[in-house]
Specification:
Four copies of one chain form a homotetramer. Chain A contains eleven helices and no strands. Chain A has 226 residues and is mainly alpha-helical. In chain A, α5 packs parallel to α8. The longest helix of chain A has 27 residues. Chain A is elongated, with a radius of gyration of 20 Å. Chains in contact: A-B, C-D. Chains A and B meet through α6, α7, α8, α9 and α10 of A and α6, α7, α8, α9 and α10 of B. Chain C binds a DNA duplex (21 and 21 nucleotides) through α3.
Chain lengths: 226, 226, 226, 226
DNA sequence: CATGAATGAGGTTTCATTCAT
DNA sequence: TATGAATGAAACCTCATTCAT
């Protein structure tokens, strides 16, 4: 996976441990100052490591960028891809509601990473960028699968499920990217509700279903941070 | 507006001319390499100016960033804000259709700028960033006005017009930001049609209206800037 | 020739001037401390330039190494190749005497460079190294030409002129390389006389000729560079 | 001798063993990359030791340089100095032939070391350098002894035996130093023959002796080390 | 007004050496 | 005895900005 990243250590456990440490340090400084404006001195301090130690576990500054972005996207994809298996016996409509709620809350949890990814993916070399974009595409694919299931089940009517799935995903991202705008206008849960209803109205065959199950919107306790 | 930007020239016309020249040069290099990775030598070359001349008309590298982003957003806002005055006597639904078509085409024309703005706004100091974000908010406001008009006219039913307007705007941006994903899936006109129908389905009081006027998709000539 | 070396200046005269300055600075520090042990701060100081200025006229530290070595070898080759044209109407034997005298004095003038070249050529990348070695081979070729002329004229008898020419050249170099040994044992002029007689004895058809013209050792003015 | 080199071990046999191991490792990496461009990680790997172990038996990187060069020169001097005792009852001329043959073959065996010594002796501190140069001078002295014997025996006529001895030795070295030139022009045995005849022609009282014994060039088996 | 040479602080990265285990 | 993780000074190089011309 990232076996091609330089390290001077042969102790895989240690390498994993230290890279985690680096990712956490990177989260602090990258997100605050941006990739190019963060220097390795600050990076090292944020990781509670010496500069030398940093370079034992990582080949370059860009490697840290990749480590950081990839880690975040992997976590996200992991949850997203595990989503359907956690669904009980519910309808596509309900599943989609749950999916949106889950995804948007995940984004809210990792707001900074999401924003950072939109800003700094360009800094990666083309291989790394490809992997990052692939990971991003997987979220859309997971959502699209759900939509197609709903179409087959006769609950949804959708011309282009890819675009709709893409909308669902990126409107989630926007909660992080445009928080300077949205935070002043609504809460996360309101945002989730608005978007869910908008989307359902646009795709439901029987529009009454949308309003029908609205009652349970608040049934689940919030998992939002802060 | 930008009277606080340093210049050694007292000839306002010349200042304006040179700054245009700089903005056009910046467009080439900033978009290709990103702000931090572009140096002033490349900048000067792209502007067909000497480095010294650059600093006659601009106080710092960051000034150029601001000039570039602000110019793009101004052009956009200008068109957006002039939109309603160019409307003839048409219904809110038709107006919204036109708005989306116009806005998305504008974004398509200035794809690079849009992407760049998402990536580099962070690099601005807080004053400049505020102005950029305000300009961005104006687009949403213009769209929101349209929506509220439709609600008052009884054509739309919308819980939170701000969020819907925001959706319309950012889904336009996504055409530029996520072109690596979307370009492979659909053309601009398809994207416009999909999004327009989705949005209308979600907000139209009388759903039948949505499909009804699709015929005129290509009637209006492009209003895209350059 | 070295048109592929990076510079940020477009003023060729200035580039040439500054590169000369750099070569002279390099001569001081490289020769004293060796290439790898000289840092760019010392280099800049020795050149009476700032580090930044250095990098205006040169792309890297290694470029300076090449500039320095190449300059020295060019000067040498220039004199060596111009040698035959400066010869009057003299015999091959006399010409060889003159050649050796000239070449060894040139080496003596540029002792440090000669030593340095033996030590640091390895540090060059393969292209630069090739050019340096080619320049070095030209000296041998010039000497070999002289020998073959003597053979044709019936004055010399030589099995393998290349090897003999090579001997003449490298024994000259040894005056610089092994000065720690030779300086204590003889003067340059003694060294020249010894080597000249040795060589002539080994190649002259009529051995009496060797001793015959020894008297004029000091007749020709030095052709040493600088 | 090298009692002043730091070690943390008190087991002299082990120290000797490990230092041999280090010398062999050094041979691989130093010769390939040069002293300054070899780092201690590579050094340790080449020695099949850990970095820590290295520093148990050696005080610094420079110590290894000294160990390596000194070992090579000692081996050489050892053979050279033992040379006369291995001579049977032969003439000075024959002895010189044998000496040259032996010495040049030794150089050929240890080409890389010879080249390396010319390049990196400067890196040693002055004490170590002195010892290295002394060892190098011993070769010349041994050869000179041979020459003086020939002079006394009336076979050679030599003005300055030191310089001639020096020539013999350094022309041997040149086989290693300038192999990029010589290898393309002749084989080792040809080189030996050419140089031997040249030298003899220059010093033999009775020139006919030179050609006379050429027939036995291949009679003695190699005495090369390793 | 226009130029671009010059500056030097600060960027990323390397590496000899130490020392806790 | 043996290990290799950790250190941080110092290496090379870049670049926004100034200012003499």
């Amino acid at each position: 996976m990232n076996d091609d990243m330089r390290t001077y250590s042969h102790d895989e456990t240690l390498v994993k441990l230290r890279r985690m440490q680096i990712i956490q340090g990177a989260a602090k400084v990258f997100v605050e100052k941006g990739y190019d404006r963060t220097n390795m001195r600050e990076m090292a301090a944020a990781c509670n490591m010496s500069i030398g130690a940093l370079y034992h576990y990582v080949g370059s500054k860009e490697d840290i960028l990749y480590l950081f972005i990839n880690d975040g996207l992997s976590r996200l994809s992991e949850v997203v891809e595990g989503f359907s298996s956690r669904l009980g016996d519910i309808s596509p409509t309900e599943a989609l509601r749950e999916f949106i709620k889950m995804y948007y809350r995940l984004i809210d949890d990792g707001q900074n990473l999401c924003l950072f990814t939109y800003q700094e993916t360009k800094g990666l070399d083309s291989n790394a960028r490809r992997r990052v974009l692939d990971a991003a595409a997987r979220d859309v694919a997971a959502c699209e699968k759900l939509l197609r299931w709903g179409v087959e089940a006769g609950e949804f009517k959708i011309d282009n499920p890819t675009v709709v799935a893409h909308n669902i995903i990126v409107l989630g991202h926007m909660w992080a990217i445009r928080r300077w705008f949205l935070r002043k206008r609504c809460t996360l849960e309101e945002y989730i509700r608005e978007q869910t209803e908008s989307i359902l109205k646009a795709i439901l065959v029987d529009t009454r279903a949308a309003a029908g199950s609205r009652k349970d919107t608040e049934r689940h306790p919030s998992v939002g941070v802060k």
